[in-house]
Amino acid sequence: RSDLRRLVVPVGDAPVARACAEGNGLEIVGVENLDELARACLEEAAPYRDFAAEVAAARRSYGEAWQGYKWPVLLEPFARLASDVPERRPDLRIRALAMYGAVLRAVGAIERSADVLEHGLALLRSPEAEVAVPDAERSLLWRHVAMTERALCDFDAAAEAAKEAVASARRGRLRKDLVSALGTQGLVAGARGDLRQAIELQEEAKEHAHAHDPRMVPRAASYLVQSLGRAGRIDEARAEYGAALSLLRSLGASSRSATDETWLRASLAGALVDVAPAEACDLLRSPLVDVAVRTQPLPGLVLRRTLGLARVATGHAASGWALLAASPIAHGQLWETQLRFHSRLNVLHEARSRLAHGHLDADARARARQALAELPPTLAAQDHLARELSALSEALRDGSETALAAALEALFVAAEALV
Q1: Treating both helix axes as pointing N-terminal to C-terminal, what angle do 317-325 and 297-313 enclose, rounded to 10 degrees?
Q2: Nearest to 281, CA basis, from 257, 258, 315
Q3: Residues 6+ apart with CB under 8 A from 348
Q4: What does the pLDDT look like over 65-89, one tens digit per residue?
Q5: 161 contacts: CB under 8 Å, gap ≥ 6
Q6: Are the CB atoms for 38 and 266 separated by under 8 Å?
Q7: Model-level pTM?
């Protein structure tokens, strides 16, 4: 019956019906009582929309947005999709809400992201969702709840959500989702300051990626390299970088491989900048890095920070400071709060570097004051950094270089949870 577009079934039968109808465009509606049955059968016909196909297309767009900074253009279509998918398809609606929440977080609308994801969690607790939402959608939603709670500095809530994401992926034997969930759990552990657990989780994520899809290894390895660097395990970080880069080269060139290599270089260079700045400069001497610094807000701002500090440390102070100072205007006005946070943090790194070299002039102090005023990306971040922000503001006002150096160092340590 090619003319049929909707099948109404008891809610308990909906998952089986959807599995049988997968790929043929048939809409399955689960109902619990006669009132719902009447509404489903008698509602006025509307233009047919294949929401399964729309969500699948959105997933592809979402995946491509990681290759460069394409999040802003996804806001409107993802908002519309999350609103339009009917609640009688909780599986599709939860995925749409999870992706929309992730897009909002990526552009810095953290509180709105939390609201959208809370809507998804409420739907997940509904009776139909208990039988109609697969573990893949559950793991995805919990994963993005964890990352948004991390951005809001509620690290305990983030840890619980990440744990749920991993549990859902394990329960469903979802290897790809497990890689992502373990990576998320590792990032949350790192934000809480537990680098040992972060490294263990990211190593496990990398091993699962090797077994399931080697294309996922470089991104997992970049998080691992970053954590190893923060833990001072530089030789291990170098080894992980080398292995991931060799694997990446064996997979062939693509836009994804270019992005993954850029993040790998950024992760190892960040680990090396304080202990081997010349090596960090060599690592960042790449056309891929040049393109990212010029055209991609992320990882461009992270690379700009590392490259600027490495240049200063290797005797090219003027160009290094210029690179850091130009961060707020490097990619337009950077209205997105998370990007603004990275750019202002770069300016404060410039101030600390100038201070260490005896070149903190009035102009650099003024830039530091402005960066400090615009730094926290959210009210939660402002609360998280309140003590460090207050101490730094006082040190800038009083003019004590010793106090200023200590306040800047304390701020950068506390900000590790937010970058």
Answers
A1: 150
A2: 315
A3: 368, 371, 372, 375, 392, 408, 411, 412
A4: 877 678 889 999 999 999 999 878 9
A5: 142, 143, 145, 146, 149
A6: no
A7: 0.86
